[in-house]
Write a structure and sequence with these properties.
The structure holds two protein chains of two kinds. In chain A, helix 1 packs across helix 2 and helix 1 crosses helix 3. In chain A, about 50% of the residues lie in helices and about 0% in strands. The longest helix of chain A is centred in the N-terminal third of the chain and has 15 residues. By secondary structure, chain A is mainly alpha-helical. In chain B, a hairpin with a 2-residue loop joins strand 2 and strand 3. Chain B contains twelve helices and 15 strands. Chain B has two domains: about 110 residues, Gcn5-related N-acetyltransferase (GNAT) (Aminopeptidase), CATH 3.40.630.30; about 190 residues, Gcn5-related N-acetyltransferase (GNAT) (Aminopeptidase). The chains are: A mainly alpha, B alpha+beta. At the A-B interface, helix 2 of A face helix 3 and helix 4 of B.
Chain lengths: ~80, ~350
């Protein structure tokens, strides 16, 4: 899957879980107030289900969920062939 | 910001974080909290390096915390590692950064068999359920058995305003007010029983026998309970560690026998003119009437004004017969396990999980 495809799927998830679609992949979701604890839970669970992945405890850093671009990078790191 | 296990050197910073979250931290509370966290999270005989407490850090600063209390249980003979999550908090300056959710998610991903929390807020409940856990609603109820309600009201009022003189002055008035209530509130149970004071070893032996009625049950050892009872005595002796907790009474541990056999076991804290707080009331459902009558007898002997305990499924019919009052305690018991039989056990009444196994402080 290309980064663009990952980003598109994530954009749909963000729209569904946060009710917002960030205008720019670098938009800070925390600073914009879109991502509080409950919203992050919704997002985490939805992303794990959508991409059939499980985030490891050491990946649970807010910086990795702060923007669509950061999240796409995190998801792609799970999907990258080893 | 990242998440890592709590280390001994962190307890002071964690205590300060906790104190800063309180509107009016009591004088000396931070030192007492640091000592409490070190004793119960780092030095507990059941502290488990594989299921550690977690801190969230921002550079050198600790900005989030989740306490981990591991319990040894068994499910139909199979060892079960239960993790009780507590004290989830984040620093004020990062409160809008979803750190609580990340701490909880990291903790739930640990190697424990089942995770619980005992006094959850609505927000934690929503996160917990979304992460796949469930709520044991019945255990969110508190049962109350008034003995001398006016005396309890005066005790609580005096505690709130911090005046023992007020309590002394109002005690005769409360006693007079309680007289008409005596016939209504007197003990009516016909149960015949004996109460034997128990040490950690005797309590462990009694629970080993009584807990056979439950699929999921604690696997206490006397050394752990000796330590736990020591912590409870220490908390009762010092000023409150947590601002929302009133001073606890004298610890009483007992085994109840009826018709020559062990019928129940209990742990409670009895405060003269105040509350008898039940931390554990263990029996088969059929023996609960004798157990509750025994607790009432000890509460009256200690001059407590009311008894408070968490509703447990095995106590419910006896509580109903005794016409105890039920109120919603505010804190929710949440459970999560990938083994759904394990997760459902508390809600189905198949688990013996008392306050001793959760937030006993």
């Amino acid at each position: 899957m290309t980064r663009e495809e990952t980003s598109e799927r994530l954009r749909d998830i963000l729209a569904r879980t946060l009710g917002t679609s960030p205008p720019d992949p670098e938009t800070d979701l925390v600073a914009s107030g879109a991502l509080d604890s409950l919203a992050l839970v919704e997002l985490l669970v939805a992303v794990e289900q959508e991409f059939s992945i499980m985030f490891a405890p050491d990946e649970l850093e807010i910086e990795r969920f702060r923007s669509l671009a950061a999240l796409a990078e995190l998801v792609d790191s799970h999907e990258a062939p080893t | 910001m990242s998440i890592r296990p709590l280390e001994r050197e962190d307890v002071g910073a964690v205590a300060r974080l906790h104190a800063e979250a309180q509107p009016q931290p009591a004088p000396g509370a931070t030192d007492r909290l640091a000592s409490f966290f070190e004793r119960t999270l780092v030095d507990s005989p059941w502290a488990d390096g594989e299921v550690p407490s977690l801190v969230a850090t921002d550079g050198d600063s600790i900005v989030g915390f989740l306490g981990s209390y591991v319990r040894h249980m068994e499910l139909e003979g199979r060892p079960v590692r239960l993790a009780c999550s507590a004290h989830l908090l984040t620093a004020r300056e990062v409160r809008n950064q979803a750190l609580g959710a990340l701490l909880l998610r990291a903790y739930l991903a640990g190697p424990q068999d089942v995770t619980i929390t005992d006094g959850a807020t609505r927000e934690v409940q929503l996160m917990w359920e979304r992460f796949g856990g469930s709520t044991a609603h019945l255990q969110g109820l508190v049962w109350v058995e008034p003995i001398r309600p006016a005396a309890l009201g005066v005790h609580r009022l005096a505690h709130r305003v911090g005046s023992r003189a007020l309590e002394t002055a109002l005690t005769p008035v409360a006693a007079a007010l309680d007289v008409p209530a005596r016939p209504i509130l007197r003990e009516r149970s016909p149960a015949v029983f004996e109460v034997h004071p128990a040490d950690a070893a005797a309590f462990t032996a009694a629970v080993g026998e009584l807990a056979q009625a439950f699929a999921l049950r604690p696997a206490y050892d006397a050394a752990y309970l000796e330590w736990l009872f020591g912590q409870l005595r220490r908390l009762a002796a010092e000023a409150p560690v947590f601002p929302d907790r009133v001073t606890r009474g004298t610890l009483e541990v007992g085994v109840v026998s009826a018709s020559g056999r062990t019928a129940g076991a209990f742990v409670c804290q009895i405060r003269r003119r105040g509350a008898c707080r039940v931390l554990a009331a263990i029996s088969a459902e059929a023996d609960a009437p004798a157990l509750l009558a025994a607790i009432r007898a000890r509460a009256e002997a200690g001059r407590a004004a009311a008894i408070f305990g968490r509703v447990e499924p095995h106590l419910l019919p006896a509580l109903w017969e005794r016409r105890t009052l039920l109120r919603y305690g505010g804190g929710r018991m949440l459970v999560r396990s990938t083994d759904k039989e394990l997760e459902r056990a508390p809600a189905l009444g198949r688990a013996l999980l008392t306050r001793l196994d959760g937030e006993w402080w």
